[in-house]
């Protein structure tokens, strides 16, 4: 397969993961550009950023059409995240590469465990049936703190600020924080969290793209080839996620988080990078 063919395939795989799990896809494209295609490290970091935008928008549109995304929440998250992403990028240069990589692995592994615990808790305590609050005041009280009642802009902004700091400091898409954060603190279902995360990820990619483009870290021909694969991949991933059960999507996302966290930790400790 030619270099262009490999690039398109890498973009497709990245798009599938983006659409299915609400992440930016940089965890696939950055190492592939560096290791498989042999580009310089800074190009491997900068080039995926403009590719995130069409992939995330494609996936977000697919989720929105099925009612599995909150556009307002995604915009709030994205705008808040833009504020702290710059701060995170600035702080990362003081921490050192090893600290950043181990911090990344720790956060991702914690998110995997937390998502599994949330699924276990939701399976044990199912949501009351519609109309139950009319018959039981205690149920009405419980519903007042359930999913829809917790989607205040303050909570959304807090998750966005954390996601932006994480994205800038650790160099991965904010989706790794947005999806678990929306589920735990804002009462989103896993599919709603994934669809909304794609809106956020698209917004967070804009400032990074501008900065790295001005610095000359974006290879636009390479980005175009990646985008050719990313767009159909994101559409396919989003459709697969919306048709699967919530439990299957949540467990798959938790598995992705766990594998990523373990791989990052081992690669740093053993020196495989």
Structural descriptors:
globular, mainly alpha, 273 residues, single chain
Summarize the entry for a quick read.
By secondary structure, the protein is mostly helical. Helices cover 81% and strands 0% of the residues.
Largest sheet: none
Characterize the overall form: globular
Low-confidence stretches: 128-147
Number of domains: 1
Q: Give the class from helix and strand content and strand pairing.
A: mainly alpha
Q: What is the N-to-C succession of helices and strands?
A: HHHHHHHHHHHHH
Summed over residues and divided by their number, the pLDDT gives a mean of 80
Tally the helices: 13
Question: What is the percent of helical residues?
Answer: over 70%
Strand content: under 5%
Number of strands: 0
What is the CA-atom radius of gyration, in angstroms? 19 Å
Helices and strands in order, then pairings?
Layout: H1 3-21, H2 26-36, H3 41-46, H4 48-65, H5 71-95, H6 97-124, H7 132-135, H8 137-144, H9 153-170, H10 175-185, H11 190-214, H12 220-243, H13 246-270
Helix pairs in contact: 1-2, 1-4, 1-11, 1-12, 4-11, 4-12, 5-9, 5-11, 6-10, 6-13, 9-10, 10-11
Task: Give a written overview of the molecule.
This protein is mostly helical. It has one domain (3-270). The chain is built from 13 helices and no strands. It has helices at 3-21, 26-36, 41-46, 48-65, 71-95, 97-124, 132-135, 137-144, 153-170, 175-185, 190-214, 220-243, 246-270. α4 packs antiparallel against α11 (190-214), α6 (97-124) runs parallel beside α10 (175-185) and α10 (175-185) runs antiparallel to α11 (190-214).
């Amino acid at each position: 397969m030619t270099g262009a063919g490999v690039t398109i395939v890498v973009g497709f795989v990245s798009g599938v993961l983006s659409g299915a799990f609400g992440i930016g896809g940089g965890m696939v494209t950055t190492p592939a550009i560096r290791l498989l295609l042999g580009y310089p490290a800074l190009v491997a970091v900068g080039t995926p950023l403009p590719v995130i935008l069409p992939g995330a928008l494609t996936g977000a549109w697919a989720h929105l059409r099925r009612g599995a995304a909150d556009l307002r929440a995604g915009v709030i998250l994205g705008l808040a995240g833009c504020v702290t992403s710059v701060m995170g990028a600035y702080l990362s240069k003081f921490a050192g590469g090893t600290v950043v990589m181990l911090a990344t692995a720790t956060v991702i592994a914690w998110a995997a465990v937390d998502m599994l615990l949330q699924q276990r808790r939701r399976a044990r305590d199912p949501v009351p049936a519609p109309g139950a609050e009319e018959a039981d005041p205690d149920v009405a009280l419980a519903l007042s703190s359930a999913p829809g009642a917790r989607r205040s802009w303050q909570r959304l902004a807090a998750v966005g600020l954390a996601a932006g700091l994480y994205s800038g400091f650790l160099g991965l898409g904010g989706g790794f924080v947005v999806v678990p954060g929306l589920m735990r603190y804002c009462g989103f279902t896993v599919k709603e969290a994934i669809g909304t995360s794609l809106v956020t990820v698209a917004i967070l990619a804009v400032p990074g793209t501008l900065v790295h483009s001005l610095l000359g870290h974006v290879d636009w021909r390479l980005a175009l080839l990646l985008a050719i694969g990313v767009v159909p991949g994101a559409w396919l991933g989003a459709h697969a996620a919306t048709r699967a059960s919530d439990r299957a999507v949540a467990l798959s996302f938790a598995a992705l988080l766990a594998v990523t966290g373990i791989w990052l930790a081992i690669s740093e400790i053993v020196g495989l990078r």
